Each structure stands twice: as structure tokens, then as C-alpha cells.
Amino acid sequence: MMAKQKIVCVLYDDPVGGYPPQYARQGIPVLAAYPGGQTMPSPAAIDFVPGELLGSVSGGLGLRNFVEGRGHSLVITADKDGPDSVLEKELVDADVVISQPFWPAYITADRIAKAPNLRLAITAGIGSDHVDLQAALNENITVCEVTYCNSISVAEHAVMQILALVRDYIPQYHLVVNGGWNIADAISRSYDIEGMSVGVVGGGRIGSAVLKRMKPFDVALHYTDRHRLPTQVEEELGLTFHSDVESLVKVCDVVSIHCPLHPETEHLFNDELIGKMKRGSYIVNTARGKICERNAIVKALETGQLAGYAGDVWFPQPPPTDHPWRTMPNHAMTPHTSGTSLSAQARYAAGVREILECWFDGRPIRDEYLIVQGGHLAGAGAHSYSEGDTTGGSDEATRFKT
Ligand code: NAD
């Protein structure tokens, strides 16, 4: 039997109004499998009701009874940033760390160096760039995530934000809330998307779901990826493939970003690349904030090179209260919510439980969940990431004040 493990789980704060919240609906649909046939998370059991809030501290991903019942210890905290944080203190003798990208526990090389027992970093979600993957490779730490758990959740959010930007929904909403009715003002930046060119960067699980969902809008669809999609998919969706991102952005009116953050994609959308886009283009970024260079986005919105920017990902998270993306013109940003709908939480909580069951029992973790294992990129990580670290600058998260 595995020796007693200490698990540190970093989750976002409970609702301001207290836990549990009032639920709008009675439950969530039961899905049979993911598109393409990958099976749903399959733990031996779950100790939560799907559709309940699991991602905050009191929800605890529904793990406490299971972990403690197996004789291991579980620390759950939202206090994650800075040298005096609970995370920093508890990590020192932790074996396993669990974190959600929405409220990321930045597992930097410095923190890894102070945590000699750390062997497993689980992302309760998708996107493990908050872990210094180079340090995990060097220190033989396994990094895994719950592949596919919220890919469709994010695709839905991206489509919503593409339409919100092009039709200019948010200002129209504020206009009615504020008692106004000037139609000329309301439509001054509002267009139809029909006939436009829409491109995605990264045609993986989310990117291809966005392409599929945009097809009925009668737009021209483009994508770029380091792996080309099967010809049958390209033909069904009428896709134009671009071997590089420059070629894609030059012809698109809307660009939706869906590649992971790794050294090749860090600050990919900088002044130079945005300068190659058509004037008045839109960017939607639900991948990672750092794929876009912060000040380049602000400048492009101010000059009109970009007509709008939306997404739900920021760097760092939480972003300081004076982060310029909160106040830049013509944006339709949300907090990092797309992948943590109540529906998505049920899947990734079950996926984390499945991973922990494997870990405690000494069974292999599913290949598709792996990012780093045995000192190499593995599974989904080998397909979608490059080696290296993208956590630099994450300590700025300490500047967020509620
Ligand atoms: P995926 O692995 O199925 O797809 C990623 C695709 O990006 C792959 O096809 C890969 O080949 C491609 N890619 C990698 N490097 C590239 C590059 N330099 N240029 C072009 N393409 C490149 O993963 P997914 O489920 O589609 O998720 C993608 C990303 O979305 C995650 O890594 C994560 O960062 C982000 N995400 C965000 C949320 C959210 O809540 N906002 C939730 C889930 C995932």
C-alpha cells in the first residue's frame, strides 16, 4: 500500500454570499462520451452531486471523504500567492498538488525546489502552463490534466464572445440597463458575421469544436496548427489550412486562439503579428492570457487596428485591479470562467478522482491525461506542448487586492 500522501489542493474562494449557493437548475445533462469517443472520467465512485459548485474551497472537488478515507491528508486553500501564502507553507512537505487554471497555483522552479516530496501535479481542468514544465521535466514530477473535460465548455464561450464582439452586444446591454434607446449609437459598431473569415490558432479539441460550431454561420473557416486535421474533417467543414499563423491572420476578420501556452506561443500576438492583421479585426482568446502581449492588445484597441478583444484568460491570475485589460476600449472580457461552468466542474472533479485512484493504487494514469512523465513530455503534452517554462512574472498575482 502507498505510504500516507499529503495532498495540497488550491481552489478559488467560496461565493461572496456563502456556500452552498442557490442553484438555477436542478441538474446537468448526462453525457455518454466526448466527441470522437474518448470516454468520460471513470472513477470507482464520486461523493458529489453533478451540477453542484465543486471548484471553490467548500466544494473541495468532492475529494475530502475519499482522500481521508484512504488514510491520506488533504489541505484545501485559496491562499496561493506570495511567500506567506498557505500554499507556499504547505507545499514544503506535499506529495501531490492539485490546482485549477482559473485560480492557478503557480508551481514555479523556486517552489518545486522547496518541495522535495512533490511527485504529482494535477490540473483540475486543461492547460498545465501554471506549472514550470521544464522544472517538472528536470525533477521527474508527473504533470497531468483532465483532457477534454471542459473543451466543449470553452468552445461554447468562444463562439459566444465572437458573436458578442462582432454584433457589439455588451454596450447594447448596458444602454438598456442605463435607460437609453438611441439606436444609432447602439448599432454604430455592430456587424453581421455572415460572409466574414474566421480563423482558429490551434485546431485541437477546442479549436475544432469552435470551427464546427461556426460553420452554420456561413463564414469562411481557416485554421493553423502544427498537426493538420484529417482531410475528411477539412472537407466537411470547408477549412483552409495555413502552415503558419502570419498567413492566417492576414486573411481573417476574426481570430480565435486555442493553442496551449508554451515557449513557442508565449507573446505570439505581439505588435508585429497584430500589425499584420486586417485593420478592424477581432481577437478572441480563451487559451491563455500570455499568448497575447498585454500592451500590444491595449495599443491595437486604442488605435483601431483591433475592433474588439474578448476572452476569459489573463496573466497573471488573478490580474491586479489596475490590469489594463479591465479598462481598455471595446473589450468583452470575462474572468476565467469558460472551463469552470457547473457542468464542466462535475467532469473535472470526477477526472481528478480517477487520477488520484490510479495514483494511490499504483496504476497508470490514462495516457491522454499526461503532460509530463518520467522526465519527458508524454500523452497530450507530447502532442500539444514544447519543453520549457512560461510561469515567469506570475508573482505579479500578489498585487491583486479584493
Ligand atoms: P488540445 O491539445 O486538444 O489542442 C491544442 C492544439 O494546439 C493541438 O492541436 C496542438 O497541436 C496545437 N498547437 C500547439 N502548439 C501550437 C502552435 N505553436 N501553433 C499552432 N497550434 C499549436 O487542447 P484543447 O483541449 O483544445 O485546449 C487547448 C488550450 O485551451 C489548453 O492548453 C488551455 O491552455 C486552453 N484551455 C482554456 C480553458 C479555459 O477555461 N479558458 C479551458 C480548457 C483549455
Present the secondary structure layout.
Blueprint: E1 6-10, H1 64-69, E2 73-77, H2 86-90, E3 96-99, H3 109-113, E4 120-123, H4 133-138, E5 142-145, H5 151-167, H6 169-177, H7 183-186, E6 197-201, H8 205-214, E7 220-224, H9 231-237, E8 239-242, H10 245-251, E9 254-257, H11 271-275, E10 281-285, H12 294-303, E11 306-311, H13 342-361, E12 370-373, E13 376-377, H14 379-384
Parallel strand pairs: 1-2, 1-3, 3-4, 4-5, 6-7, 6-9, 7-8, 9-10, 10-11
Antiparallel strand pairs: 5-12, 12-13
Helix pairs in contact: 5-8
The chain binds nicotinamide-adenine-dinucleotide.
The site of nicotinamide-adenine-dinucleotide has 33 residues, from helix 5, helix 8 and helix 14.
Give a description of the structure.
The protein is α/β, with parallel strands linked by helices and about 400 residues long. It is built from 14 helices and 13 strands. The protein has a seven-stranded mixed β-sheet with strand order 2-1-3-4-5-12-13. A six-stranded parallel β-sheet has the order 8-7-6-9-10-11. Helix 5 (about 150-165) packs across helix 8. The longest helix has 20 residues, at about 340-360. The radius of gyration is 21 Å and the shape is globular. Bound molecules: nicotinamide-adenine-dinucleotide.
